[in-house]
Design goal:
By secondary structure, this protein is mainly alpha-helical. The protein contains 5 helices and no strands. About 0% of the residues are buried.
Length: about 100
């Protein structure tokens, strides 16, 4: 199962990176989770703007109410085993680098 997970993610990542060049400009919005987590409302606004999605002004109050509710949310913290960290670094370090994440050794 472990090997399947490691190879499947690699296949998916490479396919995504190869195929996204076919998405017309202005039709793809990529964002790091941490960026969204830090400013869900602002990130949502940017997504509407960059993707040319109409209706943000009409939805703004509901989006703000929803994202404001999440401010009290406390996500779980995980302590990863050294072997897990090593597997991720060994098999997916290229993706971490491509997306600007620090590798944790």
């Amino acid at each position: 199962m472990e090997s399947n997970i490691l190879t499947t993610y690699t296949k998916l990542y490479r396919a995504y990176e190869e195929l996204k060049k076919f998405v017309p400009a202005g039709h793809l919005f990529e964002v790091k989770f941490e960026e969204f987590e830090a400013d869900a409302f602002g990130t949502t606004r940017r997504a509407y703007e960059q993707l040319g999605i109409p209706g943000f002004d009409a939805a703004e109050a509901k989006i703000r109410a929803y994202t404001d509710k999440k401010k009290g949310y406390k996500k779980n913290k995980y302590e990863y085993k050294p072997r897990t960290v090593q597997l991720v670094n060994d098999h997916w370090g290229y993706a971490l680098k491509d997306w600007g994440y620090d590798r944790h050794d």
